[in-house]
Structures are given as C-alpha cells and as structure tokens.
Amino acid sequence: MPPAKKRPRTYDPAKIRAAVTAQFGHIADAVRELGPEQLGRDSGLGAWSVADLAAHIAWIADSLASGLARPPAAVAELAAVEWPSATASLAGKIAEAAKETLDGAPLAELYEVAGARLAEALAANPGGRVLHLWVGDMTLADFLVTRTVELVVHTDDLNRAAGVDIPIERQALAACTRLLADALALKAPGGSVEVRIPPFAVVQCIEGPRHTRGTPPNVVETDPLTWLRLATGRTDWADALANAQVRASGERADLAALLPVMS
Questions:
Q1: How many structural domains is the chain composed of?
Q2: What is the model's pTM?
Q3: What is the CATH number of the domain that holds 215?
Q4: If 0-12 CB within 10 Å is exposed, 13-18 middle and 19+ buried, where does residue 255 land?
C-alpha cells in the first residue's frame, strides 16, 4: 500500500496577518532612520542599492493592497507551498512594475502610503478571498504566508547590507522557515533525508530508503536564518558547510543540487 498523502501544512490566518503587518512596520521604522551613506550601499542583490531594496519592500506592501482592490478570482490555482518555485520567471516583470510604481518618490512617503493602504485593505478583507496574481491565483490566506517570506528575507538583506538590526517577528520567521522547508520537500519528495530547522520545521525529502524509527541515517540541520539564506540563494551550500552553519551526516545528506528552492 502506498504511503498516505501528507496533508498540507496549515497556518493561523490571524497570526500571519499580525506578523506581516508587524514585520512591515519594523522595516518602515528602520528605513526612515537610514542615512544617505547606508542607502547608497550595495544591497547584495544584483544592481540594487539599499535604497532600491527598501523601495521594493514598500512596493510589496502596496502591491498586496492593489491586489485586494481588484475584483477577486474565482478559484485558487496555486498553494502557498508551490509559490517559491513559481516566482523565478516573474523576477524581471516584478522589478519593472515596482520601478514604474515607485520611481522618484521619497522612501518615507512610499512607506507611509503603502502602510496605510495595506492596513486599510486587510481590514476590509477579513476572510476567504482569492487574489488574481501574475504567479497564479491564490487565496489571501496563502498569499499572506508568502509575504512572510518576502518580508523576513528582505529584513535579513537590509540588516546585512545597511548594518542595521531590524527585529524579525517570531511568527513571521516561523512561517517563512516552514514554507521554504516544505517547498524543498515538494521539490524533492521522499523520505531518505531528514532536514531539521529547529525550533520551527522538520521535513523529509529525497527519494531512497524511508526512515521510520530511531536516528535517521541522513540528517541535515541548520538554524532558521541560515536556512532562509540557503533556500533563497543568499548563501552557498559548500560555504555554509565549511563555516559550520550546516551540519550534514549521511551519504545522501547533500542538498547542493536542490538549492536554492526560490530565486
């Protein structure tokens, strides 16, 4: 008999909403304090400066509000766990749309407008709505989970590039970690390798002998920030191993060919 199909992970919609709103607020507070030298630094993301990255984050909030202002879609086409692998083909389109929307506006103004629009849009849409999106139509609840990935990953980008210490909401970090871990398991289904990201996620992946009890023969373990950097291509697998940021044991415990799961 084949193994039972694993149920998709569920998230508490109210906690995710609160985490998204709070994380955007933390970023907005920090961006308002950035000086010209910090804003001019290289973000580490292609040709973007820190100012470009900050503007893009404002656009993330503003585009969610814009999506909620459009007529809803009929049926969801994409689940949250499928979103990371579906985003790569849209990177250029998203960058162009953000530039057209934000070009020339002061950052403080962008964040004030985006924050107000986001709060108003979420208050007006408390329930099960399906958003019409470029990446594929998604429920609002699922799309908000993906916003934790965007906001947490870019918070980490800003902290490293601008030399700041923006706090990361625990609920947002947990959702981000779990979604990217589940995306890995979806990309490489199986049960031969156990990936542990304490305290938030444990998934099994990669075809081969399935572990059932005792100590798994193939284990990968890392912390949440290292995991999100690996999963999004900010950190290289070999470098993470060399710097002892990842512990991998067993002949199958090599994720290099599967990373990043989102780019």
A1: 2
A2: 0.93
A3: 3.30.1050.40
A4: buried
